[in-house]
Amino acid sequence: MAKHIEENERIKHDYAMYLRHAQGQDEKSIDKAMAAIRQFEGSTKTKPFKKFHRQQAADFKAYLGRQKNAKTGKPLAYSTVDATLRLVKKFFHWLVSRKGFKRVLTYPDVEYFNNTLKAGRVAHAQRAIPYPSMQQAAHAFQAMPFEDEFDKRDKALFAFFMLTGARDGAVASLKLKHVNIELGHVFQDAREVKTKNGKTIMCQFFPVDVVYRECFTAWVRFLQDKKFFGPEDALFPKANIGYVPEQGLCNLGLSREGYANASKLNAIIRGAFASVQLPQFTPHAFRKTLTKYGDDISVNMEQRKAWSMNLGHENMAVTINSYLPVTAERQMEIIGGMVPKT
């Protein structure tokens, strides 16, 4: 069977256009949808979509159950399988109304892509996400070297995550103009910063240990006064790699450009924790650290709401459910320790 069928490719192109222009999805989301559809094609050995039969949906679930994670070699996670089935189901749901498919595809047929109830529950079950305590974060931060300009950048990056809890993708795209160190403000302008769901976020530095703000402020001053960076230059620039005769490609110092994605930023933070024999926490874990810290120091609901907004959440329930879950054991402990008012 051919690896590609021209008609299938046209249909996938039309679907990508639909996702982009009718659904408003970004390229990352569209790429995930296309990858899921290609997996389905792989399970059918690339049969035409117009030859769909509900048995193919059942076979696709079995196919996913046999696949292995490319990195770990283990079976695909329940959440991965569930997400893939949902993406393919959505594609076929769109196909039902297209010309030429009404005779071979119905909405009941599409339902065959549903995951089992048990697997779906497992896929969406809340899991404990490890995160550093404020003390662990301070320990890793203090141990970070502070010698050359790259050390200064990396330490300031750690400090910035503690000050803001910003998402790593957004931080990678920040420029100097987005930060006001005097006021402690960060303007995550969605027109220029890669925020989640294109949301513009204005945040204030969190009231954490003053050493974080001092480190970050010193970094911004260094860029402005020593490196002569301007408002349009990256807040956390990558290395400037250039060719030197008789040496080849060399690190020529800081570039004025930021990283295209957050992978390097993740590596820096994970490395900071690993160097002090702690778990390799990611930048995203700081959001849970800060949420727990904010819950400890907040004295009223208005402060908790402001803390949630500072993390970029419009609904405080998102902050609580995603970053401040209560285990059954902790539930019993809390209720057991409460006393009635007299």
Structural overview:
This protein has 342 residues and is mainly alpha-helical. 52% of the residues lie in helices and 7% in strands. Helix 8 packs across helix 10 (210-226). The chain folds into two domains: 6-123, DNA polymerase, domain 1 (Orthogonal Bundle), CATH 1.10.150; 134-323, hpI Integrase, Chain A. It has a three-stranded antiparallel β-sheet with strand order 1-2-3, with no helix packed on it. Strand 1 (179-180) and strand 2 (185-188) form a beta hairpin.
Question: Which key features would you list for this structure?
Answer:
DNA polymerase, domain 1; three-stranded antiparallel sheet; 2 domains; two-stranded antiparallel sheet; globular; mainly alpha
List the helices and strands and how they pair.
Layout: H1 6-22, H2 27-43, H3 54-66, H4 78-95, H5 107-110, H6 117-123, H7 134-143, H8 149-164, H9 168-172, E1 179-180, E2 185-188, E3 201-204, H10 210-226, E4 239-244, E5 248-254, H11 263-274, H12 285-297, H13 301-310, H14 316-323, H15 328-337
Antiparallel strand pairs: 1-2, 2-3, 4-5
Architecture of the largest domain in CATH? Orthogonal Bundle
Give Rg in angstroms.
Answer: 25 Å
- The SSE order reads HHHHHHHHHEEEHEEHHHHH
By secondary-structure content and strand pairing, the structural class works out as mainly alpha
Unreliable stretches, pLDDT < 50, 5 or more residues?
none
Number of domains: 2
Q: Which strand-content bin applies to the residues?
A: 5-15%
Largest pleated sheet:
3 strands, antiparallel
User: What is the CATH superfamily classification of the largest domain?
Assistant: Intergrase catalytic core
State the helix count. Answer: 15
Q: Kindly state the mean pLDDT as a whole number?
A: 90
Number of E-type strands: 5
CATH topology of the largest domain: hpI Integrase, Chain A
